[in-house]
Amino acid sequence: MKYAGEPEPFEFEPGPLIRPFAVTRGRAGKDLHELDIITLVVAVRPEADVAALDREYGDILRMCHQRPLSIAEISAKMGLLLAAVKVLVSDLISSGHLIFRSPPPPTSGRPDIKLLQAVLDGVRNL
Amino acid sequence: MAFETSDRSAGSPEMTGVRAVKLLVAGGFGVGKTTLVTAVSEIKPLRTEERLSAIGAGVDDLTGVERKTTTTVALDFGRITINSEVVLYLFGTPGQDRFWFMWKELSVGALGAVVLADTRRLEDSFGAIDFFESRGTPFIVAVNCFDGAEIYDEVEVRQALAIDDHVPVQLCDVRDRESSKRVLVRLLEYLMTVATAGAAAGTW
């Protein structure tokens, strides 16, 4: 039932969509810096710097302090969509707060046999 | 180019010494993908979400999006630290056809994949098999032996799924860590074989 003067109710569930992109100020972004779901990032600026940044940027820098994390892990830990995290991480790369490494593109040729052997050994040793 | 890294990956020049690789675990709904990831992951599996309409559209703003019906798709993943230089991520990929756009992005650069099958619903694995065959992503089939499910042997499964002779088929129980580990070992051994054969034949 509606009452006069009451705002129109939302016709959909806004939760999972609106909030994540509010933190990127509405930018969905192109994938700047060729960020992949397993691109690893590490924070390189001192902790003191974090206070001046928006909360989400600070959260990312704190969780990537001294250890590399993937875009996927940041997304899971923050409860934000991958696309939103890519935008925020891109900003932090551009501002020099984060350094990153993306996986090699699939066009880079033959599979790396040494890498496969290392992964095989690692899984065997689990 | 002076700053090109040896593997031509994008990244900051000062970020050296660590790299991430990924394997995919695909299969129908409820076949045990997340259970397999959980069995071998060093962390409690994490869940991340992607927005359905965000993919491939090249959107740069969300104007008008409030009128669209959107869906998010969840991905569960685990992590295994291989050594000080390599981190392995395992992604359970959503099984339903409508999420295949997600597989596309995920399969880019993946070392390989496990197609997890349930003998009671083998047809649920057809989509994943077709996808990896068409993309040229090397994969193995792991048959999760559920309690109460009829036990088939490897040959029967292979015939029912119409997969090539060289694709390994492995029976497993994904609730068991050792069994799940053996699935990954089998996949990686297969990837080594494929890579070595390819290098020898000069196909790469």
TrEMBL record, chain A:
Pfam families: DUF742. Gene3D superfamilies: Winged helix-like DNA-binding domain superfamily/Winged helix DNA-binding domain (1.10.10.10). It comes from the Bacteria. This is DUF742 domain-containing protein. It comes from Actinophytocola xinjiangensis.
TrEMBL record, chain B:
It comes from the Bacteria. CDD domains: Ras_like_GTPase (cd00882). SUPFAM superfamilies: P-loop containing nucleoside triphosphate hydrolases (SSF52540). Keywords: ATP-binding, GTP-binding, Hydrolase, Nucleotide-binding. The keyword Protease does not apply. Pfam families: ATP_bind_1. GO terms for molecular function: ATP binding; GTP binding; hydrolase activity. Belongs to the GPN-loop GTPase family. This is ATP-binding protein. It comes from Actinophytocola xinjiangensis.
